[in-house]
Amino acid sequence: MRSRWNQTTAPLKWDDELPLDVDLLVVGGGFSGLATAMMVTAERPGTRIAIVERSPLAAPGIAFGACEPPHLLNVPAERMGAFPDDPAGFLSWLSREAPGAYGEGDFVPRALYGTYLNVLVRERTRARGAKVGFVRGEVTRIRRVADAVEAVSRSGAVVTARAAVLALGPPAGRAPWAGVDEGAPPSALVEDPWSAGAFDVDADADVLIIGSGLTAIDVGIALVRRGHGGQITLVSRNGRLPLPHPPAGEAPHSFTRAELEGPPRKVLRMVRSAIAAREPMNQGWAAVIDALRPHATALWQAWSSRDRRRFLARLRPLWEIHRHRVPRPVLDEIETLKANGRLSLLRGQLVRVGVADAVRARATLDVFGASPALLDVARIYNCTGPARSVRESSDPLLGDVLSSGIATGDREGLGLCADGSGRLIDARGRPDPRLVLVGALRRGDLWESTAVPELREQARAAARVLMNVLPAGSPPSHRPTAGTQRVARRSRT
Length: 493
Ligand SMILES: Cc1cc2nc3c(=O)[nH]c(=O)nc-3n(C[C@H](O)[C@H](O)[C@H](O)COP(=O)(O)OP(=O)(O)OC[C@H]3O[C@@H](n4cnc5c(N)ncnc54)[C@H](O)[C@@H]3O)c2cc1C
Prior knowledge:
By secondary structure, this protein is α/β, with parallel strands linked by helices. It has three domains: 3-172 and 388-486, FAD/NAD(P)-binding domain (3-Layer(bba) Sandwich), CATH 3.50.50; 186-243 and 326-382, FAD/NAD(P)-binding domain; 258-323, no CATH class. It is 31% helix and 20% strand. It is built from 13 helices and 17 strands. The protein has helices spanning 3-8, 31-43, 61-65, 89-97, 110-126, 214-225, 264-278, 286-302, 305-323, 328-339, 396-404, 443-446, 452-466, and strands spanning 17-19, 21-27, 48-53, 131-136, 139-145, 148-153, 158-166, 189-190, 207-210, 232-236, 343-355, 361-367, 373-377, 379-382, 423-425, 431-437, 484-486. The strands form three sheets. Strands 2, 3, 4, 5, 6, 7, 15 and 16 form an eight-stranded mixed beta sheet that branches. Strands 8-14-9-10-11-12-13 form a seven-stranded mixed beta sheet. The chain has a two-stranded antiparallel sheet with strand order 1-17. Strand 6 (148-153) and strand 7 form a beta hairpin. The protein is globular. The two termini are 32 Å apart. Residues 1-8, 474-481 and 489-493 have low confidence and may be disordered. Flavin-adenine dinucleotide (FAD) binds next to helix 2, strand 3, helix 3, helix 6 and helix 13.
């Protein structure tokens, strides 16, 4: 890594002091929260912003903060710019910082993207008198009071803001181990694979990974790169790995909106026939899936509630593995481990965690279509990803905003309801101009609400709508001096 990076890429400076009063509170310091804060700052440089983030990761969010050198972005570099008016901004940054190292279609290490974001955020939030503070802490409660928002942290600190952005990421899921026998070693159960010490495990011990998606792959590769030699077993209900990105140079495909009119099964037919038509030309399926993406939100919004439920029940797993693809070299590494017998993938589920000995748990797996399996493992990693529904989530803030009625869940339970600009819709059906939602919790309205290309658009819309309620820009030095209060860090297990 070139020295200029080392000078400029130290993580953002987070502290424990929460101001008593700010213009904008941003809950969540992942891509969505940071992008929204940068865009607000660009419009209104003097806005006093506090960004509150509960995790101690050095770079934003799990995707770019909880990763290691071998973990690659799953979106090509030229589409990962942080701002909608400069989608190639990340690629330009790379070509300035490491000339010739990466090209347009390359899948770049995710940690490098985290560095790019840190550099960008630091530059933008220091520019032109911006007043942005970064606070480690967890917001557990939010209330609307007159023309303000009041938020309470886990430690009881209270901050008042003119408006708040909820950029919480996907709803946290529950650990997949319901039945744990007394005496099962607690060290064997790793609820958060990115928590400190999660990979400190005897190199010869067998381990079990629950899940077979992007996080499961990351964890498997991280273990192997650390010299882990024990057997790695992945188990998931569908028993399938994500599919790889196609080789460069595939012919693109496109659909008109009219071709995709109709319920999910009609769309599936269209997709299948488009894929079949490409086969004689040796063109793969990936471009057909990509051609659906520009229509995904319109399709989702046109479907009835019944259509959506059918899609979620029957087609969602298929969509996920085709849509959330991994770079080919990553999958090759997993396939090689499988071929060498070092990694296996089962279709089934964990039903019980018992005791093998003082340091190993005995996992009972219901293997679909085969006899149950018993595995004695030193670690069981929870890689099941977010909760499928906000109703299943254990997240305290989500529970709070739903029970207080300042937010409503969408019918399918995927997230919270918001209007087109992201303004949260309350239990009486009114959009709240002071509470704006950005990120995965908008899936219920938009379906596609996952990756940087769509999140940067949401951040821009959020920043624009916030201009209606944020102060019109009196210089911060004219404001009364606000106090601060200490926020306890969230302890991670
Ligand atoms: C393994 C993996 C790889 C990915 N790779 C890519 C990729 O290559 N390209 C791409 O475009 N996208 C990728 N994604 C999707 C990625 O998640 C999004 O691009 C983006 O990072 C999401 O940002 P976010 O801010 O919306 O959510 P998050 O990154 O989840 O950030 C939300 C933050 O809010 C914090 N938070 C939540 N609740 C509270 C609270 N109450 N108080 C304080 N803090 C709180 C969380 O700790 C979290 O840090 C990947 C995702 C994963 C999991």
